[in-house]
Specification:
Elements lengths: L44 E2 L5 E2 L6 E4 L12 E5 L5 H9 L3 E7 L2 E2 L14 E5 L2 E7 L4 H18 L3 E5 L14 H17 L3 E5 L5 H4 L5 E5 L11 H5 L4 E5 L4 H11 L2 E5 L7 E3 L1
Parallel strand pairs: 3-4, 4-5, 5-9, 9-10, 10-11, 11-12, 12-13
Antiparallel strand pairs: 1-2, 6-8, 7-8, 13-14
Helix pairs in contact: 2-3
């Protein structure tokens, strides 16, 4: 996973252990890794429109390996949609946590249960660093929207509060398609609408160059390495709107980023590249 800004998403199979791209080339993502209906009790309120509205300053945990360590003291958990059943989400809710589902929205992964439902016409070039994965033609919302809606339905059925859609920056990568910034805006906003229609909060990840335009459509941001790559200020539109930005650093020690991220209102943690349960907080 390269750069990423908000996120939460959905949905199976023989997923691998976590992963993350440390350079800013191919659309970012870390670890890969299958919601109860118990009402969560903390970390923001339900919006009048019917979905969770997280507030800035919440602490977070990002774990894409399994089993998820539910004992970590964090307001928000971001976990894989496929590899975690509804009882995991319910356990986190009982502990007063909000839970986000990781979903790969802009790329195809062969190990997901619904991989065979993606028409070949949607599949582009392999992601840099992840040769088994393929970029998607995000212009084809007629084909993609039903597939993504099903993944979000799965998140909703398991009880997740929000989604982290990954790889929503195809237009800045060599995808095999002539994608434009306008194509990306249309796709990202469609994702946000699909999530909100299902009562799920939605985070923006990857598409930092369009944060100012997309901040009104998204409820939080999910990012990687903003301190290391000197991009934290790009997320200020979320912070100014009172929305949280969840950042993960890999190579920089907490002493090297906590002062910066605290000053900007960003909730930052240090993680291993595999995105297991280990973390360091500010």
């Amino acid at each position: 996973m390269l750069l990423s800004v908000f996120v939460l998403a959905a949905c199976a199979g023989a997923g691998g252990a976590g992963r993350a791209v440390v350079a800013s080339t191919a659309g970012g993502r870390a670890a890969k890794a299958p919601m109860s209906v118990a009402a969560p009790r903390v970390a923001g309120t339900a919006a009048p429109a019917g979905w969770w509205q997280p507030r800035a300053g919440l602490g977070w945990q990002w774990q894409l390996t399994t089993p998820v360590d539910t004992s970590v003291r964090a307001d928000v958990y971001d976990i894989d949609a496929d590899d975690n059943a509804a009882d995991v989400v319910a356990a986190l809710h009982r502990a007063g946590r909000r839970v986000i589902c990781y979903v790969n929205a802009g790329a195809w992964e062969p190990y997901r249960a619904d991989a065979g439902n993606y028409p070949k016409v949607l599949l582009g070039k392999a992601l840099d660093g992840w040769p088994d994965e393929r970029w998607l033609d995000i212009r084809r919302l007629d084909l993609l929207a039903p597939l993504l809606a099903h993944r979000l339905d799965t998140c909703k059925a398991k009880g997740f509060d929000g989604v982290e859609p990954d790889n929503v920056d195809g237009y800045t990568n060599d995808t095999g398609f002539a994608l434009t910034a306008a194509d990306q805006l249309a796709f990202d906003r469609a994702l946000a609408r699909l999530a909100h229609q299902r009562g799920l909060a939605v985070g923006l990840k990857n598409d930092f160059d369009q944060v100012a335009a997309l901040a009104p459509d998204f409820d939080y941001g999910v990012d990687e390495q903003c301190a290391e790559l000197d991009t934290c200020s790009a997320l200020s539109a979320f912070v100014r709107a009172g929305k949280p930005v969840f950042d993960a650093e890999y190579a920089v020690p907490t002493s090297g980023f906590c002062t910066l991220t605290r000053g900007l209102g960003i909730s930052a943690i240090r993680k291993r590249l595999e995105l297991d349960a280990w973390r360091q907080t500010c």
